[in-house]
């Protein structure tokens, strides 16, 4: 059975939820998928031992988690050699404004350029506004940012914008690529 590492960085949990869904789809497609939280990982796993790799991160203040970029840089040759894919969560990708969506794509490309990685597949996907998980200051800032991006400013609830069909289709396409490559 082909093995897939699904490694992610997540600050408020939405990228983790997306990574979990990707693992579920890959397993349904008959692959042996392992989920790794890059923030909490011990040094005990070695990407070079798996057949393929999916990496996910989210955008905060215009960039992806530094520890995810470090992971990609550290394992760039492995990532560029095996089937690989990258997904990026943001509020920009949730916007109906074409310029904001283009920003999500640009930041994704910037991440790849800075890390020197050429994945086979990419996805800029809408994230979430989790007011319930933000402290006072972050909630205040996000109410302003969220108001501009989506108009959702009711801080007594959370908002999820992720298009799950898009996520599942991304995972299925990657499973097809792995099978073709095997
Ligand atoms: C403090 C903060 C800053 C953010 N900055 C950006 C940003 O610059 N651009 C953007 O598109 N989304 C931004 N977002 C939205 C996040 O990318 C979105 O909430 C995403 O779902 C977070 O994923 P995570 O829960 O896996 O960390 C920001 C969110 C927070 C809380």
Automatic annotation (TrEMBL):
Signal peptide: none annotated. Coiled coil: none annotated. Residues 4-149 form the Flavodoxin-like domain. It holds the Pfam family Flavodoxin_5. GO terms for molecular function: FMN binding; menaquinone-dependent protoporphyrinogen oxidase activity. GO terms for biological process: heme biosynthetic process. PANTHER family: PROTOPORPHYRINOGEN IX DEHYDROGENASE [MENAQUINONE], PROTOPORPHYRINOGEN IX DEHYDROGENASE [QUINONE]. This is Menaquinone-dependent protoporphyrinogen oxidase.
């Amino acid at each position: 059975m082909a093995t897939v590492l699904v490694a992610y960085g997540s600050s408020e949990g939405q990228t983790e939820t997306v990574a979990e869904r990707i693992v579920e789809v890959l397993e349904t497609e008959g692959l042996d998928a392992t989920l790794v939280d890059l923030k909490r990982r011990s040094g005990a796993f070695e990407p070079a031992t798996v057949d393929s790799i999916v990496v996910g991160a989210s955008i905060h203040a215009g960039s992806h988690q530094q520890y995810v970029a470090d992971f990609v840089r550290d394992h760039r040759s492995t990532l560029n050699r095996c089937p690989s894919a990258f997904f990026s969560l943001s509020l920009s990708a949730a916007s109906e404004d074409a310029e904001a969506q283009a920003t999500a794509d640009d930041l994704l490309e910037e991440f790849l350029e800075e890390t020197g990685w050429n994945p086979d597949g990419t996805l800029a996907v809408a994230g979430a506004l989790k007011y319930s998980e933000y402290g006072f200051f972050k909630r205040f800032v996000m109410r302003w940012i969220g108001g501009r991006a989506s108009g959702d400013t009711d801080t007594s609830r959370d908002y999820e914008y992720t298009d799950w069909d898009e996520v599942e289709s991304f995972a299925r396409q990657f499973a097809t690529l792995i099978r073709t490559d095997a």
